[in-house]
Design brief:
Length: 130
């Protein structure tokens, strides 16, 4: 396999992994136990090696880039991000608790809700979003 073909395959693999990571990161925003930031960091890494265009898109995205930038600058989440996460976690776990067939499912949803909100409350807050 020639060098050019190998580089094209590597680029396609990085792009594929990057898009899967973005999908999982977006799914992790409203889902309590699925982390958002690690998947977005993986996507940024893959896009940086696979496509400058997609890396620029991710790093300038209105919703996704603040997670990456906050992690890179070790600032923490802004109050707006915490509020949005808390609202989505509450809605998700309310629906889960309503449709859970057994009381143990309802109790588990309540436990996850309480611990998620406690984590958001005690986690350091960034001053402002950029």
């Amino acid at each position: 396999m020639r060098f050019v073909e190998r580089a094209a395959w590597k680029s396609k693999i990085y792009l594929t992994v990057g898009f899967v990571a973005v999908g999982l990161g977006v799914a992790g925003i409203p889902t309590p136990l699925l982390p958002t930031t690690p998947f977005l960091l993986l996507a940024a890494y893959c896009f940086a090696r696979g496509s400058e265009r997609w890396h620029r898109w991710l790093m300038t995205h209105r919703t996704l880039s603040p997670y990456i930038i906050a992690f890179r600058e070790k600032r923490g989440l802004t109050r707006e991000q915490k509020f949005r996460i808390a609202a989505l976690v509450t809605i998700t776990l309310l629906i889960t608790g309503l449709f859970a067939p057994l009381w143990i499912g309802k109790a588990l949803a309540a436990f996850i809700w309480i611990t998620s909100l406690a984590f958001l409350y005690f986690a350091p807050s960034a001053e402002k979003s950029e």
